Amino acid sequence: MTMLVILLLLPRLTLSATSSYSLPEKYYVNCGSDSDVIYGGRTFVGDMTSGGNSVSFTKEGTETSSNQSGSSTSPGIYQTVRIFRRTSSYKFQLDSAGLHFVRLHFSALSSPTEISTARFTVSATSGSNHHFKSFSVQNLTETPRVEEFLLMISSPEFEIQFVPDPSSVALVNAIEVFSARDDLDILSKFDKNLHTVYRLNVGGKKITPENDTLGRTWSLDDDFLYRKDAARNNQTAQKPNYESGSVSATEYTAPDPVYKTTKTMNRSSSEGVGLLMNVTWSLKVKSNTRHFVRTHFCDILSKTLNPDSDFYLYVNGHLRIDVKPSERVRLVTPFYKDVVDVSDGSGLLNVSIGTKELRVDAGFLNGLEVMEFMEKSASVSSSKSSSMVYIIGGCVAAGLILVLSLLFMVFLKRRRSKNKKKKADAEVTVWSPLPLYRGGGGGGSSDNRPFDPVNNSPLCNTQSSNTTKLELKLYFHQRLNGSSQFSVATLVEAQYASFDYLSNGP
Ligand SMILES: *[C@@H]1O[C@H](CO)[C@@H](O)[C@H](O)[C@H]1NC(C)=O
Ligand SMILES: *[C@@H]1O[C@H](CO)[C@@H](O)[C@H](O)[C@H]1NC(C)=O
Ligand SMILES: *[C@@H]1O[C@H](CO)[C@@H](O)[C@H](O)[C@H]1NC(C)=O
Ligand SMILES: *[C@@H]1O[C@H](CO)[C@@H](O)[C@H](O)[C@H]1NC(C)=O
Ligand SMILES: *[C@@H]1O[C@H](CO)[C@@H](O)[C@H](O)[C@H]1NC(C)=O
Ligand SMILES: *[C@@H]1O[C@H](CO)[C@@H](O)[C@H](O)[C@H]1NC(C)=O
Ligand SMILES: *[C@@H]1O[C@H](CO)[C@@H](O)[C@H](O)[C@H]1NC(C)=O
């Protein structure tokens, strides 16, 4: 019963945690270095100087390499690297549990040749369970490479482990671990384990970490337009009017330049107003995988607040969301819409904006972020983890069936009431004949995502001590455009978390 009470309190606790947020001062680690470097407005502390208790790493079997010559143009964090010849890890003592950004920087710029053939595993753990999967780095010639994750960390003890393959080394140039504003519209808190795939400044210029409020990189969107001449850029010099309140966009949601530039419908003189029109961005993603899509909007085009500026947002053709810039308090007010959807077998994720009515010309997009859910993958489950889940499942199942059904009812109720709220706000409608829950994962908005009592139920949490176990299987591969990128193939093998920290406040 105590647990039920805690569960009911949960949304309130997370909300209060998100109401004020500013860029945390830690942890930014300049690996393989004894000096600090400022990058993207943050101070990356050399891992040889940060001798405090907060960040530590296993020094044995590691070495450093640096290159000052010829690389003066590359940021300081890439001029030194830590190389691991055996299993080693960085340990972080976080101020609190909760949602965190985790970024890993890899570069071969300053590295010996053995780096380019490095194969290694990276895993992230909060709590006491460890588990590794094989992971290979094949091409580090195109550098630097940054891998970003958003992880719901369940215990303040956070560890990132590097395990080189036999006769190989592992490496890392810099690590960032810092708390994030927990504003993701995802139903289950335990589902928030995401890997960033795309981050686009639509209609604008590339934004580097120096110009972002959280050290992010925003790329150009043009290459992803399905029909390039269907859209045109527009921009404003006016500073965005951020609305106060924890549910709207802040300067940390996306920086000013994202909201000051946009892409809108390109009406050619021949077409003019009087035709329905779509602009589509088509992004290559992993097939049949659940994705978190955040679309950023800011009406810099309209002269007045007017329902004529409202339009539709489509995701994968079957999810339609009503976007209503006219309901903002003022013009040039940033806001965002979150969508959770499963990619289909085409390996493409389509995001479109479309006019609502024949007689009006509307529709724009300012920014687009796509993140892949890292979740349990049946095909790669190892005997160790699956047997563990099995054993835990076996012991608990009998005793907790009653509580489970109770919880299930609570969740159904919460979901229903949340859905109701949602309807009024976003008017998510599914109008396509496509099945709602394709791929067994989601296919609706986050609110439509089926509740999975086995993997998502907070019940598991009563079981294990403060532990979230993540498993990241990473490998480089060639993209169609010739650039190689990391991709994450494996996921959370099992997730356990305890509510212990909640009772002390997050
Ligand atoms: C330093 O970098 C330059 C150019 O990137 C490279 O040619 C040189 O071999 C590097 N030196 C060392 C010691 O890694
Ligand atoms: C590594 O990437 C570079 C640049 O993209 C490419 O020219 C080279 O062929 C790649 N090497 C391998 C082994 O894939
Ligand atoms: C990025 O920031 C630098 C320094 O603050 C500034 O000079 C530059 O114009 C900014 N670039 C963009 C694209 O905003
Ligand atoms: C807009 O459409 C016209 C006519 O189709 C085309 O000539 C023009 O290049 C397009 N503009 C952009 C920015 O693509
Ligand atoms: C940008 O939008 C404004 C307002 O709708 C419009 O007057 C202007 O022509 C647009 N500029 C471009 C380059 O499309
Ligand atoms: C995305 O658009 C492309 C091109 O129109 C289409 O081939 C593909 O099936 C679409 N994928 C989804 C998931 O809608
Ligand atoms: C816009 O896209 C939606 C979803 O793919 C589609 O149903 C609609 O017919 C499209 N409209 C036009 C005018 O192409």
From TrEMBL:
InterPro entries: ANXUR1/2-like (IPR045272), Malectin-like_Carb-bd_dom (IPR024788). The keyword Metal-binding does not apply. GO terms for molecular function: ATP binding; protein serine/threonine kinase activity; transmembrane receptor protein tyrosine kinase activity. It is a single-pass type I membrane protein. Residues 1-16 form the signal peptide. It is found in: Membrane. It holds the Pfam family Malectin_like. Keywords: ATP-binding, Glycoprotein, Kinase, Membrane, Nucleotide-binding, Serine/threonine-protein kinase, Signal, Transferase, Transmembrane, Transmembrane helix. This is Malectin-like domain-containing protein.
